[in-house]
């Protein structure tokens, strides 16, 4: 018979990475354990990808143009730059954040004669959903290299692929259908309104965690999150996994149309991409890349770092 000084692990594997632990008594019946945990040494098991600006919809035009139209419908004009500032958030929260921009709130109060309220946010979001669903099919073209890169991640590196987004499920269903036609189908997809208790927002990690439940993946060190926004990078950091920012066609290139980008002088394009890099470099991301096509290099490097005992 074992004494009460022992803790017995029954049924299944021992705690992941467990080693011998130092113990300290904090008083009668209270024992403090100081584990000497063996770090996870790889490889990566899952890659969780964003949608707009990362795998599809270069420069994140789909939501930006609709936010402008929704505000116009409610009698207040906003700029594309203003519509982009909170990008990456769940769309109802995004509308609320736009209304917190001082220039927008000043315009709203001048026109409406009162501050905006939660009821205004709710009404605007209700209008936003059908408007976004109507135009979304126009903005579902995969970013160059996305399908081939995902295929490589799955075949060469044996990664499972998940996705998170600020879109709602009804919008994600459109994205999934159009992406499948172009050769991209994530193994798991979680929208903000699919997470219980209204917790499906960034930078909270719960959409990412739900993906890991769907995929059957742990530990968190075996996961990499890829996104073109600060809040999306923050989702990965909040979760405790590796986090990668994608700068080249991100929200922060701040364009109004693909035609504007195509006609833009190369020097201005370079300046905008550099601004995007700077924004993501300051986000806390472990890596910042220009294109999803750069991901295999990052995966190789993360696997090497983990073999050497590094953690996110």
UniProtKB/TrEMBL annotation:
Cellular component terms per the entry's GO annotation = cytosol
Cited InterPro entries: HAD-like_hydrolase_sf (IPR050155), HAD-like_sf (IPR036412), HAD_sf (IPR023214), PGP-like_dom2 (IPR023198), Phosphonoacetald_hydro (IPR006323)
Print the keywords alphabetically: Hydrolase, Magnesium, Metal-binding, Schiff base
Q: Which cofactor does it need?
A: Mg(2+)
Name a biological process GO annotation: organic phosphonate catabolic process
UniProt-recorded Gene Ontology molecular function terms: metal ion binding; phosphoglycolate phosphatase activity; phosphonoacetaldehyde hydrolase activity
State the source organism's domain of life: Eukaryota
Complex and partners: Homodimer.
What is the protein name given in its UniProt record? Phosphonoacetaldehyde hydrolase
């Amino acid at each position: 018979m074992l004494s009460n000084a022992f803790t017995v692990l029954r049924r299944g594997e021992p705690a992941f990475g467990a080693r011998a632990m130092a113990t300290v008594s904090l008083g009668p019946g209270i024992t403090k354990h100081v584990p000497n945990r063996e770090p996870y040494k790889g490889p990566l098991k899952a890659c969780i990808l964003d949608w707009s600006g990362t795998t599809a919809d270069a420069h994140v035009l789909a939501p930006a143009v609709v936010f402008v139209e929704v505000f116009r419908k409610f009698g207040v004009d906003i700029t594309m730059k203003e519509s982009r500032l909170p990008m990456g958030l769940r769309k109802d929260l995004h509308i609320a954040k736009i209304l917190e921009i001082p220039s927008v709130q000043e315009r709203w109060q001048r026109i409406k004669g009162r501050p905006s309220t939660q009821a205004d946010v709710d009404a605007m979001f209700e209008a936003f959903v059908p408007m976004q669903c109507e135009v979304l099919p126009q903005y579902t073209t995969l970013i160059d290299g996305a399908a081939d890169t995902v295929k490589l991640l799955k075949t060469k590196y044996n990664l499972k692929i998940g996705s998170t987004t600020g879109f709602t499920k009804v919008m994600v269903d459109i994205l999934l259908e159009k992406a499948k036609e172009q050769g991209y189908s994530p193994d798991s997809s979680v929208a903000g309104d699919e997470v219980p208790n209204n917790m499906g927002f960034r930078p909270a990690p719960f959409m990412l965690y739900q993906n890991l439940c769907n995929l059957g993946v742990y530990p968190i060190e075996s996961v990499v999150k890829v996104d073109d926004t600060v809040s999306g990078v923050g989702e990965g950091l909040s979760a405790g996994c590796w986090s990668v920012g994608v700068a080249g066609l991100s929200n922060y290139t701040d364009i109004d149309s693909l035609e504007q980008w195509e006609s833009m002088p190369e020097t201005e394009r370079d300046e905008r991409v550099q601004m995007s890099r700077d924004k993501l470099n300051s986000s806390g991301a472990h890596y910042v890349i220009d294109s999803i096509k750069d991901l295999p290099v990052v995966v190789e490097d993360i696997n090497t770092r983990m073999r050497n005992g590094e953690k996110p």
